[in-house]
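Hey, quick one: can you model this chain's 3D structure?
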Amino acid sequence: MTEPRPGDAFQPGDVLNNTYRIEALLGRGGTSDVYRARSEISGRLVAIKVLKSEFSGNDDYLVLMTREEEVREIRHDAIVRYSENHRTAEGLVYLLMDYIDGPGLDRKLKEGPMSAEDILTLCKRVGEGLKAAHDRSIVHRDLSPDNILLRNDDPAQAVVIDFGIAKDTNPGAETIVGNEFAGKYAYAAPEQLSGNTDARSDIYSLGALLLANFRGEAPDVGANPMEVVQRKNDPLDTTGVPEPLRTLLNRMTAPDPEARFQSMQEVLAFIDSGGAEETLSDATIIAPPPAKETAEKGADKPAAAKTPAAVPTMDKPAKATPAKSQTKKKTGGSSAGLIAAVAAFVVIGGGTGAYFAGLFGAGGPAYPAVSPFSLVIADPENLDVSASGYVPGHDMQNALVARMNELGGTADLTLASGDIAPSWADDVLQVLDDVVLLDDWQLAVTDNQAEISGSTTDPELQARLTAKYPANWPGGLSGTIEVALTSLFLDSAIVDDILAQYADCGPLTQVNRPGPAGYGMDDPVLIAGTLAGEATRDSLQTALEDTTDGRFVVIDAEILNPTLCLAENYLPQAPESDIAIRFENGLTGQEVTSGEFVVGDNPVIDVIIPDSVTTGFISVSVLDVSGDVFHLIPNIARPDNSVETLRQGQSGAATVRAAYAQDEPKEEGAIAFTVDGSSLGKSKVLVMHSFAPLFRQMRPRAESAIGYTEALAERNADQLIESLDTRILTTAAQ
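Sure thing. Here's the predicted structure for all 734 residues.
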């Protein structure tokens, strides 16, 4: 699981569409995040993919989500099932899909090599799912270990996910990313780099990722785009792979699409035959096809394989830059394709200009374009520092990763190009050097617009930064800054003043009241008590957060109704005791530990007197949600409430029934009631143990709460009561 952050689209506990309760954040991506949620109606687990807010209004990204939703027409257990898109009231777009309980192949890759048997099982399972997609002319185009999940950690139950850049190859169908490059370099087929994609591209990617998981290490494809292009010309190294898996992978990952299996059906047929069908020789598979002769250069031999160099993982962007296709046409039934194009450099006017498939321009590698070009680097209070978004090159990527490592945080960065100033990378890193001096902060950059927010206890730092920005942003950046000045300590008396303003239902207390110095910067402010309603709690929360300089505020207050709040304010003050209150459903005889009853239920109330209470008087009343008080013990029909009488000779703990089941035998004057729906909500059961009778004359069986509390005040009940125990009884429609 991934730790949630305050800026996330959803938080655990949120409910979407009145149905799906968010349970956890599963992972973050460049354009979207994925959550686990549970239907509150059926209990079914689902995964929810939500487009990040900066992309929710962008038609290109909405098309990608729609394209992914349309994959629901593929009916196969190895393809994740999608349902539909929704949009929240705030404009966030999210997609519902099946939740797959199991690890991704990317995690298995980190754990080490998988057996040849598991790899073959995995190939057959995924191949069957992809065949179902290909039969509908849908090509995935982004197969990689993180896009295949193993339900129950079983290769035979693998599921392919993330069809966000899938391409519909039906004649006339709209291509979502056009002929642009889509897919991760490490597993992408060679022809994908020049924008050519069909079912054979998925076959290559599946073979490449299976080989990676067999070896337990990701392929090395080069340290820069030129090396990537050159090495895609070379067959993958399958040395040491046992047969028939080796031949299978060789034929799946041949650099020339014509030398591969031509369909997933052929892949499955090979597996089903145990490799007995006629196959190409190792020499044919491993040696790259010869480059075509040209009038200018004669016959060239294929470039020799070079030692691979490590390259950072490049996540797919949501939208790519149109590629300039330089793939040569097939002649004589053989295609040199990408291979012929990679073999040469173009020399122009004495200067070297390397152009290939749109990956190279005069300024170096051109990464896929995104708009807006956004990056968020943040160190929020109580959470780890993180960097997430797009960067224009490896230098900045490496610099940010190093900085996040220094700060103990994480980086989720995607290489891309955009409408940004040439000095953008240096400008952002320069601003970051200033921002990290704050106690908590966020630097959000969209294209060339930047926003700094945060807080500090250092007035000189606040003054310096607010003087420097926004007037002196470096390079091509411009934007705003908002830095709050916070105090090192917060006087608890300030909190008391706020609590007094909002205490509408009895006193509110500071659970962790600090010493004379007050609350430190990292100290939470914990409040307990009772309140009259949700609106009061929300207002109190806001008031405290506005006053406590970013400290964590928790209000653990019970929400009561006006009648109960009246009692809280006017009832005698007395300690709790060991006297217990027990609820039971008179219809079933079962104990109701929650204290919750619905219309038609028959609440039974028992008072359990401990063995330590042998003298005095017990009074039991119910403050009803309607504003009335019902006296269960004593009342006109049941006047004797002495402990001795109530015990009826019982020693030890004695159970006294205060409200009865409807159909049970009961003494005269005993009360039994049923929830009728006329007044639903919270009521409070009061049990008072007093030295003498609370009143000189018997109170009526029912009276107003105001009259009852006034009578207690006139009687000076504080002087008579030894203990006061209470319990909430809640009634609801269902």
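One thing worth noting: Confidence is low (pLDDT under 50) at residues 165-183, 278-365.
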